[in-house]
Amino acid sequence: MSIMRKAYKFRLYPNTEQQAMFAKAFGCARFVYNQMLADKIVQYKTDKTVLHNTPAQYKGRFKWLREVDAFALCNAQLQLQTAYTNFFRHKSVGFPNFRSRKSHRDSYTTNLIHDNICIENGHLKLPKTGLVCIKLHRQIPVDHKIKSVTISCTSSGRYYAAILTEYEFTPPVVALDESKALGLDYSSPHFYVDSQDTEADMPHFYREAESILNREQRRLSRMVRGSNNYARQKRRIAVMLERVSDCRKDWLHKQSTELANKWDYVCVEDINLRGMAGSLKLGKSTNDNGFGMFRLFLDYKLAERGKRLVTINKWFPSSKTCHVCGAVNHALTLKDREWDCACGAHLLRDLNAAINIKNAGLSLVNTNRGVHGDSSLILSRSCS
Q: Bridge partners of 11?
């Protein structure tokens, strides 16, 4: 048995006063984050020491900070600490940035204490805000205890509450069958090709809406910045982009659920999607697919069912290796969609890679590795 956390996201319908309170909390949380970051930078430049400041130190100077939920300011401090921790652990993440009012997503997080957060009669009770109308499209299980709530507002003006819960989880005991293993090879045009020679054929939601979006963007460019027409047109574009994102996420959820219900093992490659998008000029297609999000969905859905997601190292030459005899074709290029092996096998690139990924994943399972995102090495980089 282990303690697990799961978030549930619901649409909120705040009234005018509650919207004003949310806007105030968004601004105060952003202000505290930026002020603490600025003071830390000045302190370090002055005498090379680290400033351990807290939101309470700013409430005396800025009285209006007392008007919002105190936990919103405390969580802004924790988010800044996390940003510093990530920077020191991985320099590639970059130094913490200031949060812009225009480009930063409006949100704040509050915590449950003394039953200050609860759901009752179709409303979400929040500190300083009161009862906010909530669309409960699904029920939170009784054994899930609320830990925190993150309130956010999208560019289109929609409000959401992400309710983080905590519960005791015992993985179901399932007799996993290796014959129910599936390998997935990422494919830009098809999303993926599996080891059963099935193409996912994911709809290209962004590309389908691209012509309309371009037209609306041109209209926006001809409007006066700061005018009412400009604001309305900007929101119109935000609504369209949000719909594209929602359609993509809905498809990914349905596809990952289908695979998690049907297969005991799902094997994927730990490919660098960001690097692929930049180096191969596939940025628009890669971002439109959302394969990274798909892997995350698969991971937790398989785990909830007592099944396994097996991750293969990205340097494993899945496309170049013949799944029949194991020979590696080092001369294979990205343009070669099919090839003939010396053993006489005629290989389709994506299907061959998916079969190799499945076989490599099962070999990791047999050595008790590669479970839930473990990128265990199969072959070194020099072998690719």
A: 135, 160
Mean pLDDT, all residues of the chain: 89
The CA distance from 145 to 151, in Å, is 18
Region for residue 129 given its phi and psi (left: phi exceeds 0; alpha: psi -120 to 50; beta: otherwise): alpha
What local confidence, expressed as pLDDT, does residue 280 receive? 61
Instruction: Compute, in degrees rounded to 10, the torsion defined by CA atoms 7, 9, 10, 14.
Output: 100
Residue 282: partners with Cβ closer than 8 Å, 6 or more residues away: 188, 276
User: Residue by residue, what is the 3-state secondary structure of 162-226?
Assistant: EEEEEEEECCCCCCCCHHHEEEEEEECCCEEEECCCCECCCCCHHHHHHHHHHHHHHHHHCCCCC
Give 109-152 as a DSSP string: EEE--TT-SEEETTEEEETTTEEEEEE-SSPPPTTPEEEEEEEE
The amino acid occupying position 247 is C
Per-residue confidence at 279, pLDDT binned at 50, 70, 90? low
Query: Which pTM does this prediction carry?
Result: 0.84
Distance linking the first and last C-alpha atoms of the chain: 40
- Beta-bridged to residue 186, according to DSSP, are 192
